[in-house]
Amino acid sequence: MSTSASRVSRAAEARVSRRSRRRLPAAWRSPLAVIGLVIAAVWFLAAILAPWIAPYDPLAQSLPRLTPPGEASIMGTDALGRDVFSRLLHGARVTIPLAGMLVACAMVLGTVIGAVAGYVGGWVDEVLGRLTDLFMAFPTVILAMVIAASLGPSLYNAVLAGIVVTWPMYARVTRSLVLSLRSQNYVIASRLLGYSPWRSLGTDILPNMLGPVLVLASLEVGTAILLLTGLSFLGLGAQPPTAEWGSMISGAMQNIDSWWLGVFPGLAILTVVMAFNFIGDSLRDVLDPLSSAERQGAGAAAPPASAQDEGADPVSALTSEISEQEAPR
Amino acid sequence: MVAPTRAARNRTSGSALPRYLLRRLGTSIVLLIGVTLVTFVLTALVPGDPIAAALGEGAIQNEATVQAYRERYGMDRSLPERYLLYLLALLQGDLGTSIRTSRPVMEELSTALPATVEVAFGAIVVSLAVALVLGTIAAYRSGKLADQVVRVVSLVGLSVPTFWLAIMVYRLFFMQLGWAPGSGRLSPALNPPPRVTGLYLIDFAIDGDPVGFIDAAAHLALPVLVLSLFTIGLLTRFIRTSVLEVLSTDYIRAARAKGLPARRVIVGYLLRGASLPILTMVGIAFGALLSGTVLVEAVFAWPGLGTYAYYAAINLDLPAVMGVGLVVGVVYVVINLIVDLLYGVLDPRVRLG
Q: In this predicted structure, what is the pLDDT of residue A288?
């Protein structure tokens, strides 16, 4: 009796797990995505718990200067006698939320502009399209530097500069997605039923382009972190004494003999960016059959020409946009 | 049977190519004008006060000084007027005068650009070679372990903060191992070669100076290495996708079926078939490298476009910023032109179409 009961429960378990696995987006089943999620989760926890788990105050200059990693401080101390490990943990509280904010703002701004351009069309599209081109034509990093410098060096201005240089990408992707969705029968049907354009934009088009745009955004978090830390490294972002990874590395350049100053913040940036890239890349696999190994059969069937046919297929439009846009740094 | 068709095709392409070329050059010119407009408008939009940045807070109180300054740099005119003046000056090769150094921007850029082009070109060559191998392996073994490994490698390459990596390799290969020389383009003991192209490697070769050539090459090694890693990540993923697309075509299947050795299939058929999209991506990557070297140049004290752009930006030296933006834009347009023309060379259909 006990065996049959356990068998029943095991069968139920199997059913549940099978069902939950089916409900799970395919992306979460790839090992890469799991690794990315775990690393990201660790960093999120570190950021949240930093005030409690950091052994020292990140700003307190209370330790002997430039001591290598040892028992007192596991990642050593910097030129002002601050604990590198504590600063590293607190750095996560600075960079990760700001990068998220940057991506969220750029995404909303770009999506709205791109959606309006694609949906309204005509001269509105023309004007917004040229505006997008305007911002895309100027080299990203240099534009960000100029904006950050002209607003005055601070982390928030660096975020603002990041938003200004990244929104056009979302606008482009959204525009081509909207163009392809607009001609779908169900959207035309809703217009024929007499619903307002805003309703069809909001309820028919927006939900359907959310997926690709979110994938793009997840890939962009890493880029945003690299941009923010890079600007801080140049002195155009975080200002001392803020515990921020980019400026920690720039401090390491002044004391280049103390290897621990540079190695750890760099690894922090690397692992966080990697985590987001792993997640974003796995998500893209689900959307884009061509770059996915498992779905190669489906990819082979798709005519390669579809990518050139603008707006014919939202996914290929997106991926070609992404691969084009990955470059600037 | 074959000969007349080929002759006929040659005749058509002979007349079609110049027309294609002309049309392509026309678009490039329109694009270039667009680039000038973009740099002009964007720099005009910059919120900071370049006058305050240039004169200092003290001098800005003095109205006569400010007025004289505005007149000197044409800031008292309307925007369209200023744009026209800017264009006219451009036609004479005049990019304005740097506010920071009081030297012609054109002159300063003509030394900064080759320094960056040298690094960027080196990085493209190295990363293309590596990415072709990795990308082809990944496509061939798609879904297998090798594919996954290549994928992780390229994703990690895209995740590395280049400025950090630059410091790390500098520490390791220069300070610890002594394998590579320190920062800059040349050892302090050496003089730059007589200027022909501004690219030290080529100028040393023209000059016939092996010592200088080797020294310049050694100074290139670390920056190229650092920049390559990111570009490898970018190109590998793209090459994999392109090769995968070609792999599923009938002519590859036919080539494999008739028993051609794998190497011939890969080099003669596969990579040739995938060369157009790869070429486009290489062009994009090169353009991105030109403006993306800022952080690496900062570490290696490399006197290139990035360093110049950095000082221009933090001093709000707008003529210099516009110069950099324009140069990068022009290089983009030129690269696109070259890529498109190479398309015509690689794929006859483009010429005729």
A: 60
| Greater pLDDT, B9 or A32 | A32
Cis previous bond, A241, omega within 30: yes
Alpha-carbon Rg for chain B in angstroms: 24
* Token duo for residue A128: 């917004």
- Residue A26 binned pLDDT confidence (cut-offs 50, 70, 90): low
Task: Return d(Cα B188, Cα B190) in angstroms, integer.
Answer: 6
Q: Is A147 on the interface with B (CB under 8 A)?
A: yes
Instruction: Please state, as a whole number, how many other Cβ atoms lie within 10 Å of the Cβ of residue A249.
Output: 28
**Listed residue (A170, A327, A312) closest to B237, CA to CA:** A327
Number of Cβ pairs closer than 8 Å across A and B? Answer: 174
Q: How confident is the model at residue B352 (pLDDT cuts 50, 70, 90)?
A: low
Chain A, window 253-282: residues with a beta carbon less than 8 angstroms from a chain B beta carbon:
253, 256-257, 259, 262-263, 265-266, 269-270, 273-274, 277-278, 281
Are B250 and B148 in contact by the 8 Å Cβ rule? The answer is: no
Rounded to 10 degrees, the C-alpha dihedral B206/B208/B210/B211 comes to: -100
Look at residue A37 in the predicted model and tell me its pLDDT: 93
ipTM over the 0.90 cut-off: no
In whole angstroms, give the CA distance from residue B339 to residue B35. Answer: 19
Q: Whole-model pTM? A: 0.82
Nearest to B102 by CA among B317, B256, B325: B317
Per-residue pLDDT, B123: 94
- The residue of A233, A263, A264 whose CB has the most chain B CBs within 10 angstroms, and thus the best one to mutate to test that interface, is A233
Contacts 24+ apart (CB under 8 A), B272-277: B272/B346, B273/B246, B273/B249, B274/B239, B274/B242, B274/B243, B274/B245, B274/B246, B275/B346, B276/B343, B276/B346, B276/B347, B277/B238, B277/B242
Cα angle value A235/A227/A219 (rounded, 5°): 165
Residue B263 is predicted with a pLDDT of 81
Contact A284, A264 (CB under 8 A): no
Determine the residue type at A272.
V
DSSP string of A115-136?
A: HHHHHH-HHHHHHHHHHHHHHH
Chain A partners of B158 at a C-beta cutoff of 8 Å?
A: 222, 273, 277, 326
Alpha carbon distances (Å) from B196 to B210, B232, B278, B324: 17, 31, 31, 21
